[in-house]
């Protein structure tokens, strides 16, 4: 029977990490990389005796610590899980069945996004297919951008069962995470020497946000998911604007360090 390991990274995830770890109980090994949490995250992880805990600096590029977590596992297969996600019992069974076959070296699977307590079934929020399960050594991150996908060496299959994503227990959590991701994107543009000209300003502060909202809320029927669907679509568009505004602010400080 091939072995399966689960890797998580966490920064101030005391509200949700216990549920994630409970759902990972079927695994042969589980590691948590704690990234300078200032809340009870580390304390909660230590209540799970089968979970191995590592402490690392809170690198803005989350994939660097994700890669570190992968390296700590010696299992045949690895599943990456965020601390605000849950593996359902049905998915756990399917994972065990999938790793016994030799057809694929990695698997994608659908994810349900639970937004302020409501499953977003529309607005391009479902099935939100993710590549999370892979044979050790067959996939990894390039570690260039926080939102990059795992790069796979080999053929990829598809699982049927979903896992759950509970990213925002409250509006405060939503704003906190938005602030983090917009800041990372601004730094990425700054380091990429993006030209802050009128074309890019219109692209990132008007056209892209407008069409993203139109696509998610109208064309993909995000309006069917109530007020949560509206906030999801509007927030996605707003993040584009804030990211570019932060980039312009950083660029201005770079050009005029004394201002």
Report on this model:
By secondary structure, the chain is of the alpha/beta class. It has two domains: 164 residues, Spore Coat Polysaccharide Biosynthesis Protein SpsA, Chain A, CATH 3.90.550; 86 residues, no CATH class. The chain contains seven helices and 13 strands. The protein has a seven-stranded mixed sheet. Strands 5-13-7-8 form a four-stranded mixed sheet. Strand 7 and strand 8 form a beta hairpin. Helix 5 runs parallel beside helix 7 and helix 6 runs antiparallel to helix 7. The protein is globular. The model has no long low-confidence stretch (mean pLDDT 94).
Keywords for this entry:
single chain, 259 residues, alpha/beta, Spore Coat Polysaccharide Biosynthesis Protein SpsA, Chain A, 7-stranded mixed β-sheet, 4-stranded mixed β-sheet, 41% helix, globular
Brief sketch in words of this structure:
The chain has seven helices and 13 strands. By secondary structure, the protein is an alpha/beta fold.
Strand content: 15-25%
Rg to the nearest angstrom? 19 Å
The dominant shape is globular
According to DSSP, the number of beta strands is 13
Biggest sheet strand order reads 3-2-1-4-9-6-12
User: Ranges with pLDDT <50 over ≥5 residues?
Assistant: none
Straight-line N-to-C gap = 63 Å
CATH architecture of the largest domain: Alpha-Beta Complex
**What percentage of residues falls in helices of 4 or more residues?**
40-55%
Question: What is the H/E order?
Answer: EHEHEHEEHEEEEEEEEHHH
The CATH fourth-level homologous superfamily of the largest domain: Spore Coat Polysaccharide Biosynthesis Protein SpsA, Chain A
Structurally, the number of domains stands at: 2
Q: Which class do the helix and strand fractions yield? A: alpha/beta
CATH topology descriptor of the largest domain: Spore Coat Polysaccharide Biosynthesis Protein SpsA, Chain A
Count helical runs. Answer: 7
Report the average pLDDT across residues: 94
Largest sheet properties: 7 strands, mixed
CATH class of the largest domain: Alpha Beta
